[in-house]
Each structure stands twice: as structure tokens, then as C-alpha cells.
Design brief:
Layout lengths: L1 H12 L7 E2 L4 E2 L6 H11 L13 H9 L1 H13 L3 H9 L10 H8 L5 E4 H9 L4 E6 L4 H16 L4 E4 L30 H12 L3 E4 L12 H21 L7 E6 L15 H9 L4 E8 L10 H10 L6 E4 L17 E4 L5 E2 L2 E2 L1 H4 L4 E3 L11 E8 L10 E6 L7 E3 L4 E7 L2
Parallel strand pairs: 4-7, 4-8, 5-6, 5-7, 8-10
Antiparallel strand pairs: 1-2, 3-9, 11-12, 13-16, 14-15, 14-17
């Protein structure tokens, strides 16, 4: 119940994309700056008393963390935007209570995997998607690695005939087939809230270059206002599904669509808590057989005690995989763990990536980037500095292709960039 409660609380908080603002959270994201919003989030978190961090927590400490929930979410997002991917996960991990131990139930799940095998996730998803018209993949909004995997998957789905890319974070463009980017094919500040992340921007740029039709489907938050949080969720899920139908399926009877959403929006079956999510509404409206994929349950955390209890056990059971994988049972079925059986069809398990040149290895293997040293003259002499790399032909409000946080006196991480020529900008802390 803790996991379900946390997912619901995150959704109620409004981790959404609306004109660059997270309205329901009571704060807005500055889409053009990186350092100042990060500092603001750090100052807000400083108000949380030190007594709230040790585990197990007292009721008073738990209340302090709950009260800081929105600030922790914002700090996680701002750290991700600033290239601090490990710090982003650490911020969200503070929302957890004492980590769950490996239980008898978990051991029973592992026992049922005795004859299962690990298969490359991209290959398995593409094979399952060949006769499907809708593929849904989720993300945790503070984990850019999920966007790098989505970029890889989108490239593979495009090759088998998928043409529409609908993302929860996209802001509305023109009615109908929204194209939330510049005509030149660059993600810009107005594209969406989480596309401020350089990895997400790279995903969008690659999608535009590959000929995807980008579609926004998030409903207007003003239409969702309700004193009952569960009713607000219901309105949002129905509104998302309705927009997808109106903007894609009602106009293109043969549309093949890749939908990229957050968290539980991709759940097809109605959970026991009575919440019906977007994918279930979409399936009812279109009568299509949806392929739904979760990638949020199993990935590495800086603090291994905060990882899903089965994650380490799966690593031991299936060896040190080099790429994201899914499971195949001896009978050909697809085991789904962590209570998501029946809600999703496939579950991606991300390997434990190493750090290279101060950056996570998945930036190379998933996002297709290569390291490039920060020009020496840009390194700070004191304090911290945000270094931003942009294409030489980037428009004024283009999202950088990489963003890193550098501190004077400490080893500078490498920039991780796709092929091309770049110019640089920076922001110093005040």
C-alpha cells in the first residue's frame, strides 16, 4: 500500500506539463534558467529539520517529510534539469519510509522465475508491438535515464511503422495534431515542462529528425479542479484519453501511436484501489489492444537501501546485464513483478550503470552520446556554475543538449553530447 499511496500522492501533486508550470504543486518551473531555480529548491529544502532524515522515522519526523513533499519533488526535478541525475533520485528517495525488506512474497515471485530468461528490452518490445497500434511507456519524472530509453525505443518503433509520438509533458500547440517545437526541429522552452531536461530535449530532437508527429494530450488543469483529489485524478485520466482520441484516433483510423506518460497513467486494468487510469479509458474508447510497459519499478539508486527489494535479487538471478531487459518465462509468458501483473504487459529492468567521466554510462549506451571536455576557460574559479552546451544553430529559446553542474576545486564532469558542433553558455550561483 505504501507504493500505491506514494504514486497517488505524486499524481495528486500534479507532476504534469502545462505551459511550463506545475500548477497543482503550488510552484512553477522557470523554463529558461537552471541555477537560480536549483538554489531556490535547495533553500526550501533547508527548512526541513535534520531530525526528519534518520530512519526509522517518528510520527513527527514523518509529518515533516510529508510537509516537505512538494519541495523534495521540486528539488529532484531541478537536480535532474541541472544534470545531477544521482542527486535527483536521492531527493525523491527521502520521501520513502524505512525501505521494505525482501519478504516471503518477494521470495515466492523469485521462485516462479526459476526457468525465466532475460531478453533485450528493445527487441522484445518491438517484437510485441508489430501487431499493435498503441504502445505506452511510463517514466519517473525525475529520472532522465527513462527518457534515454524512450528515445531508443522510439527509434525502433518508427522503423516498424509508428508515426505519432504523444507525450504527457508536451504543451498544446495547434488544435489537433500538435507539434510543440520549432519548425527547425528543436525542443524549446515552451515544448513542455520536463523537456527542460537536456536528455528529454535530445529525445524530442531525435523524434523530430525521425519524422514523428508530436501530439500533446494533457488536459487544461483549470477544467480538473475538484476538492476531492480522487475525482481530480479521474477527470485528468478521462481528459487525457479523450484528447488522444480526438487528436489522433478520430482523424486517423490506422494511426500507430507511441504514448509516453508518467507513472501509473499507463496502467490498463483497474487497480484494487478503484482508480481507473488513462490507458484503461483509452482502451475502452478505442477498443484497441494496447501494449503497456512499465520502466519505473526497477532501476538503481544512489542509496541501495532505497531500491525496490527485488532489484538486487534480479541482478543476482540474471547476472550483470549490460542493457535494459525484460523477462520471458519458460512458457513464453512475460512475468511482471511488484504487483503490476495485469496492469502492464512488459516490465523493463534497468541494469546498474557505472559512472564514467563523472556521468552515468547510460548517456553513452542509451542516449548515444560521447564525452567532451568542458573548455578550460569555462570552469569556475570559485563557487558553482551551470555549463550548458547548445548546437551552434540553436534558436534563442532552444533547450541545451547537455547541462552540468560544476564546482570549483572539484573534478569537472564531462559534457555528454551527440555528434555536431556546439556553443556554450553558463550560469553562476548568486
Amino acid at each position: 500500500m505504501l507504493v500505491r499511496t506514494r504514486i497517488v500522492s505524486l499524481l495528486i501533486a500534479g507532476l504534469c506539463a502545462l505551459q511550463g508550470a506545475a500548477q497543482a504543486q503550488g510552484f512553477a518551473y522557470d523554463m529558461r534558467a537552471y541555477m537560480a531555480p536549483l538554489q531556490d529548491a535547495e533553500r526550501a529544502l533547508a527548512q526541513v529539520p535534520a531530525s526528519a532524515y534518520p530512519r526509522p522515522r517518528s510520527a513527527q519526523a514523518r509529518a515533516a517529510i510529508d510537509q516537505a513533499g512538494g519541495r523534495l519533488q521540486k528539488l529532484g526535478a531541478e537536480r535532474a534539469f541541472a544534470g545531477d541525475t544521482e542527486g535527483a533520485i536521492a531527493a525523491f528517495d527521502l520521501l520513502q519510509d524505512t525501505p521494505v525488506e525482501l519478504t516471503a512474497g518477494h521470495q515466492a515471485q523469485l521462485a516462479r522465475l526459476a526457468d525465466a530468461q532475460a531478453e533485450d528490452a528493445i527487441q522484445a518490445i518491438v517484437a510485441a508491438a508489430r501487431d499493435k497500434r498503441v504502445v505506452l511507456l511510463n517514466e519517473a519524472h525525475h529520472v532522465p535515464m527513462h527518457r534515454a530509453f524512450a528515445q531508443r525505443l522510439a527509434a525502433a518503433l518508427r522503423k516498424i511503422g509508428f508515426t505519432y509520438l504523444a507525450a504527457e509533458t508536451f504543451n498544446d500547440g495547434a488544435p489537433g495534431d500538435a507539434r510543440p517545437s520549432t519548425p527547425g526541429g528543436q525542443a524549446v522552452a515552451a515544448t513542455g515542462t520536463y523537456t527542460k531536461d537536456a536528455v528529454f530535449a535530445g529525445f524530442v530532437n531525435a523524434a523530430l529528425a525521425d519524422g514523428w508527429k508530436l501530439v500533446a494530450y494533457e488536459p487544461d488543469w483549470e477544467t480538473l479542479a475538484d476538492k476531492d483529489p480522487l475525482q481530480q485524478i479521474r477527470k485528468r485520466e478521462q481528459g487525457q484519453a479523450r484528447n488522444l482520441v480526438e487528436r489522433i484516433f478520430s482523424k486517423d483510423k490506422e494511426a500507430r501511436v507511441f504514448i509516453y506518460a508518467g507513472y501509473a497513467h499507463v496502467y490498463k486494468a483497474q487497480p484494487g484501489d478503484g482508480i481507473v487510469w488513462m490507458a484503461e479509458y483509452l482502451g475502452r474508447a478505442t477498443k484497441l489492444d494496447l501494449l503497456s510497459i512499465d520502466q519505473t519499478a526497477f532501476h538503481a539508486h544512489p542509496d541501495r537501501a532505497a531500491e525496490a527489494p527485488l532489484y538486487a535479487a534480479l541482478g543476482e538471478r540474471f547476472g550483470e546485464q549490460r542493457a535494459p531487459f525484460v523477462l520471458r518465462a519458460a512458457d513464453g509468458g512475460r512475468p511482471v513483478l511488484n504487483g503490476l501483473a495485469g496492469r502492464v504487459d512488459l516490465q523493463v529492468i534497468h541494469p546498474r550503470y557505472a559512472m564514467q567521466d563523472g556521468r552515468p554510462e547510460w548517456l553513452r549506451t542509451l542516449a548515444g552520446r560521447a564525452p567532451r571536455a568542458i573548455p578550460h576557460e569555462l570552469l569556475p574559479r570559485h563557487g558553482r556554475r551551470i555549463i550548458k552546451a547548445l548546437r551552434t544553430d540553436a534558436v534563442t529559446d532552444a533547450v541545451p543538449l547537455d547541462v552540468v553542474l560544476v564546482e570549483a576545486g572539484k573534478p569537472a564532469p564531462s559534457l555528454m553530447l551527440p555528434a555536431g558542433e556546439f556553443r556554450y553558455a553558463y550560469e553562476d550561483e548568486s
